[in-house]
Write a structure and sequence with these properties.
Elements (H helix, E strand, L loop, with lengths): L1 H21 L13 H18 L1 H4 L4 H21 L4 H34 L2 H10 L5 H15 L5 H15 L4 H20 L6 H8 L12 H16 L20 H21 L4 H29 L16 H6 L3 H20 L1 H11 L3 H11 L5 H11 L5 H13 L9 H9 L6 H5 L2 H18 L5
Length: 472
């Protein structure tokens, strides 16, 4: 026991010396990266992220290990501050800044997810799927339609929802054609990730860059053509290997429920509100999204009243209603939000924020952006996002805050958004489709086409640097 206490005192003393040697009242000293507390924090994050990577095997939700790691990292950091004689308020202010960043992301995504869940409950996506599978298109046409719709829907809905919707169409059209399903799923993943890259509403990394103020809302549309190229080049090549046969059309008819079209309109108005808050009032977009959520709140009350009356008097509303289901309730849609994902973001932001206080991000920023140069570093970020989730990678870049031009910030937005398409595990869209088309769309099936996807990745980077050269 005495030996253990002696070790603790020695480690604490080492941490205190590191602070005393380099802390200047602002950012913690770079020397902290070599302390026992720094190493322990880094090890905690790596261990937590390994559990996230093996979520499918362990069945442990990804939010749990990163939340625990985040808590312990900040405990270690707070102890370091106290041992070094640094005012405790500094650790307090640092974690409050991270919590504030998370709160903005949480509220923004919570409003968006509630709208998506509401449209799902009103059969908006099911009606689109029903229309597609009943048309009798050839497999090659279905390949192009699902990829195109993944590209155009994901800027508004998130890429995960878009991928699941288009994946359901593919599985309904030709469930036994493994080659077609695998190619179509790859096409959907690439299309959904590319479409989300140029819209803050389509990809979390783009949203983070926008909320951080590194680019204005309209400036992300400079990435439209590069993102289109990122999807189009692999799609053209892969389509050559898709059969032109026409499967038997399915007789499926799903109607949207009462109020579905008006919810779509309110979602569009919510997007306008969020953009207006940021562009014209200098207020956080999350505040605009929450105002937009109130639009849905009042309209949900109207739907509930109408459906209650319809159920009481057994009078249909003219469009398919909830039938015997409970009347529409907005709080049920809030409850159905991806809370595991939202809490995962909390853990990631606080883990990365804590490591930043230890000086690790400053060290990485020096090695990457000063050593490799901004362009090479930003391309590397995209490749890393295919292996590691793009959320911590992008948050780390934003926390480093390297001095870059608008063109470079758009480049890292593009690469972080589309880099996940290189591997099936590189994005939420790919992971979701591996579950939907289990045994058909696999890691190995995607890996065979990674060189083709990489060709689109490289072409999109060159397109951005050529078309938007003036922004660099």
């Amino acid at each position: 026991m005495k030996t253990f206490l002696l070790c603790c005192v020695t480690l604490l003393g080492g941490a205190g010396s590191a602070f005393a040697a380099g802390h200047g009242g602002g950012e913690p000293a770079m020397a902290l990266t070599g302390t026992a507390f720094g190493y322990a924090s880094l090890a905690l994050f790596v261990l937590a992220y390994l559990l996230v990577i093996f979520e499918e095997q362990t069945h442990l939700r990804k939010s749990k290990p990163v939340m625990m790691a985040a808590g312990f990292i900040w405990v270690l950091l707070a102890i370091c501050f106290r041992v070094a004689g640094i005012p405790p308020e500094e650790a307090h202010h640092a974690i409050i800044n991270n919590i504030t960043e998370y709160a903005e992301l949480l509220l923004f995504l919570l409003a968006a997810m509630t709208y998506i869940n509401s449209m799902d409950e009103r059969n908006v996506f099911q009606a689109l799927r029903s229309w597609l599978v009943s048309r009798g298109f050839s497999l090659r046409i279905v390949f192009w339609i699902t990829g195109f719709l993944a590209f155009v829907i994901s800027p508004i809905a998130d890429n995960l929802t878009t991928a699941l919707l288009m994946g359901a169409v593919v599985m309904a059209v030709a469930p036994n054609n493994k080659k077609f399903v695998a190619l179509a799923c790859i096409n959907i993943v690439v299309g959904a990730n590319a479409g989300g890259a140029f819209s803050p509403f389509g990809d979390i990394t783009t949203l983070m860059v926008w909320q951080k103020g590194q680019a204005a809302f309209g400036e992300f549309f400079f990435l439209f053509i590069p993102a289109l190229i990122n999807w189009l080049i692999p799609a053209i090549i892969m389509s050559l290997f898709v059969s032109k046969e026409t499967p038997e059309a399915l007789s499926e008819n799903v109607s949207m429920k009462f109020g579905a079209k008006r919810i779509i309109f309110l979602f569009m108005m919510t997007i306008v509100t969020a953009v207006s808050f940021h562009n014209f009032l200098d207020l956080p977009p999350a505040a605009g999204m929450m105002l937009g959520l109130s639009y849905l709140g009042f309209f949900s009350y109207y739907i509930k009243v109408k459906e209650k009356r319809a159920l009481e008097y057994d009078k249909p509303l003219g469009i398919s209603t909830s039938g015997k289901d409970d009347p529409f309730d907005i709080f049920q849609k809030v409850a159905r939000a991806e809370w595991d994902t939202l809490l995962f973001f909390y853990g990631v932001i606080l883990c990365v924020g804590g490591l930043s206080q230890f000086g690790y991000l400053a060290l990485v920023s020096h090695q990457m952006y000063d050593g490799l140069g901004a362009t090479n570093a930003n391309i590397l970020v995209g490749i890393l996002s295919a292996i590691v989730d793009n959320i911590p990678v992008m948050f780390a870049v934003l926390t480093m805050d390297p001095a870059m031009s608008l063109g470079q910030w758009l480049l890292v937005t593009l690469t972080a958004g589309v880099g996940g398409s290189l591997l099936s595990i590189g994005s939420a869209a790919g992971v979701a489709l591996m579950g939907t088309a289990r045994g058909t769309y696999t890691f190995g099936a995607h890996l065979k086409w990674t060189p083709i996807v990489a060709l689109g990745y490289a072409a999109s980077i060159y397109a951005h640097m050529f078309i938007n050269n003036r922004l660099f």
